[in-house]
C-alpha cells in the first residue's frame, strides 16, 4: 500500500484525458440569477431547479431516495460560483464543505483506515473522493500494475443508454478519503454531485447514523457468489468482519478480464434519469 501522497482538496485532471474531457474542467454552467437571499428550493423559480430537483433537505442532509439501491435518480446538481444566490441557498452542501473531523488509523489486515472523531447523522455529506481524474485506458493500465492495491474509484453513470465513466485515482494525489476501506455492510454511499462543471465529484454520504470513533467504509463494487475460483485468481480476502461478508474484496474478482471496470477498479454504478 502507498502511504505517501500529495494532499489535494479537489480533483485534478490528468494528461491522459482527451481534449474534450480536459475542457470539461473549465466549462462552467451558466448558473441561476437568484438573489443573495434565495433558497433555490423546489418552490421558487430558480433556473438551476428547472433542470434538477433539490437533492437536499432543509438541514442539508441528502434526501432519502438518493440512498435507495437500484433507483433511477435525477443527477445531483448544486448551485455554484456562477449562481447569484449566496449563504441561504439550500443547494450548496458539497460546495460548503464539511466540518467533520476524520482521522487515518491502523486498521489491522486492511492497512490504514479512516474513522470519524465526531458522530455523523444519517444522510450527511462526509467527504469527497479526490484524486487525479484519469482516462479509462490509463485506469486500466494503473490497475493492472497495482492489482491488489488500487486507489482508483470508477463511477459509472447511465443517462438512458449513454454511459459515462469517471475514474479517480488517489494513489499519488488525494485526501484522507483515499484511506476508506471496503465493507460488505458499509456505512457510507457514494453519490456523484455536480457543481460548476459537468465533471462529477464523487461524494460520500452517511447511509445511517455513525458513532464517533467508528471506521468509515464504502462498498467497493459488485458482490457475486464465490465461484470457487477466488484462490486461483489471487483475490484478496476481505477483512471487513460484517455478518454478510462476501469473503473477498469484490473489485478484484475479475482482474484478468478485458474491460476497465473489471480490472481491479472500485466501481459504483448509478442510473440517472
Ligand atoms: C483505497 S485503499 C484503502 C486504504 C488502504 N487500506 C491503505 O492502507 O492505504 C484499498 C486497499 O485497502 C485494502 N482493503 C480495503 N478494504 C479492505 C478489506 N475489507 N479487507 C482487506 N483489505 C482491504 C486493500 O489492500 C485495498 O486494495
UniProtKB/TrEMBL annotation:
SMART domains: SET (SM00317). One of its GO terms (molecular function) is histone methyltransferase activity. One of its GO terms (biological process) is methylation. Keywords: Chromosome, Metal-binding, Methyltransferase, S-adenosyl-L-methionine, Transferase, Zinc. Residues 234-250 form the Post-SET domain. The keyword Transferase applies. Residues 98-221 form the SET domain. Pfam families: SET (PF00856). GO terms for cellular component: chromosome; nucleus. Its main location: nucleus. Gene3D superfamilies: SET domain. Residues 30-97 form the Pre-SET domain. It is found in: Chromosome. It comes from the Eukaryota. This is SET domain-containing protein.
